[in-house]
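> call design_seq(struct)
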């Protein structure tokens, strides 16, 4: 039976996503009707926490919502999907973050929104309880944009590094444009740095993904993972760059695919999987997420990820690794044996 990993602390945004599936991108002044409009749990930290919970990794999500009905709904959704809400704060001065996501038939999405209360996440109370049994910290570039949340992020980073925790940072599109220098300054304190091609280009000025990757690696992060969407991902393995293949799927919506990718990679490393296994599992999770409309509570679980992993890869070596990763995912899906019930003694 696979060993259940220790908890991971996740700091960041919790939003109410309003997701609209439309036939096209509207022209200025046009009346654009959505084929489907729905409310979903969202935000990079909430998405990552739900995805980790679906892998059986207990997240400790630190975030902030407003004193409003959206905040209440998000707490309820998180609890329903395996995420404890003990560390989620309520702001009196800010509303819950809201994001409208416009999705077109090609699966591309465009965000309009406000981070709201996620900009004022304060240092958590009872830090000993938070840190006890936590072996990793997952941060986002968004944590370093606003002063209050940045103070919290730096406090957690310093505290958990002292405890020998593994630190991960997912850059994000807005931070790569607004605070590239700050992200690069934080990189040497990070064990695993995640970025996509556009973010890496903003951070390094390099248009070629491989050159951008090497520049990020030289910035001081111990491990860099470059997300390339349909092209898979890039990692550094045994002294050279390694292109890890993707899984072909029909893309419905790319919302949350990057968060699903990162969560799969993190759980794999926490469980002691190899770097190549973690990267291939992450590609499968990202592909599975791209097949589903929305993120949050709709992110794929192990059955959907296993289904993607059943797709054969052309390269024999990668396909052999795919079978190994599939076997590990299937082992995680096996139910735990029931504990024997205590025999009852007859009353005299």
């Amino acid at each position: 039976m696979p060993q259940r990993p220790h908890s991971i602390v996740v700091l960041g945004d919790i939003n109410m996503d309003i997701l609209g599936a439309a036939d096209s991108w509207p022209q200025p002044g046009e009346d654009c009707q959505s084929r489907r409009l729905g409310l979903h749990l969202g935000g990079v930290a909430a998405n990552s926490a739900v995805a980790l919970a679906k892998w059986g990794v207990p997240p400790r999500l630190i975030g902030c919502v407003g004193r409003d009905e959206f905040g209440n709904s998000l707490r309820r959704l998180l609890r329903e999907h395996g995420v404890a809400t003990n560390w989620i704060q309520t702001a009196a001065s800010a509303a819950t973050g809201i994001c409208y996501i416009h999705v077109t038939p090609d699966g591309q999405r465009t965000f309009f929104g406000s981070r709201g209360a996620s900009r004022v996440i304060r240092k958590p109370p009872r830090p000993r309880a938070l840190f006890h049994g936590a072996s990793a910290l997952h941060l986002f570039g968004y944590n370093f944009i606003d002063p209050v949340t940045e103070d919290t992020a730096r406090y957690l980073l310093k505290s958990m590094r002292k405890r020998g925790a593994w630190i991960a940072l997912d850059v994000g599109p807005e931070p790569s444009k607004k605070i590239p220098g700050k992200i690069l300054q934080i990189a040497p304190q990070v064990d695993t740095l995640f970025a996509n091609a556009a973010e890496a280009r903003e951070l390094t000025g390099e248009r070629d993904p491989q050159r951008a990757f090497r520049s990020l690696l030289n910035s001081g992060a111990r491990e860099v993972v470059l997300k390339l969407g349909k092209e898979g991902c890039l990692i550094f393995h045994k002294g050279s760059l390694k292109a890890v293949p993707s899984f072909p799927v029909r893309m419905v919506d790319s919302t949350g695919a990057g968060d699903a990718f990162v969560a799969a990679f993190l759980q794999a490393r926490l469980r002691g999987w190899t770097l190549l296994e973690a990267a291939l599992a992450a590609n499968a999770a990202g592909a599975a997420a791209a097949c589903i409309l929305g993120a949050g509570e709709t992110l794929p679980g192990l059955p959907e990820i296993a289904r993607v992993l059943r797709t054969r890869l052309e390269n024999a070596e990668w396909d052999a690794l795919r079978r190994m990763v599939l076997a590990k995912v299937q082992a995680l899906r096996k139910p735990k044996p029931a504990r024997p019930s205590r025999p009852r003694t007859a009353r005299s």
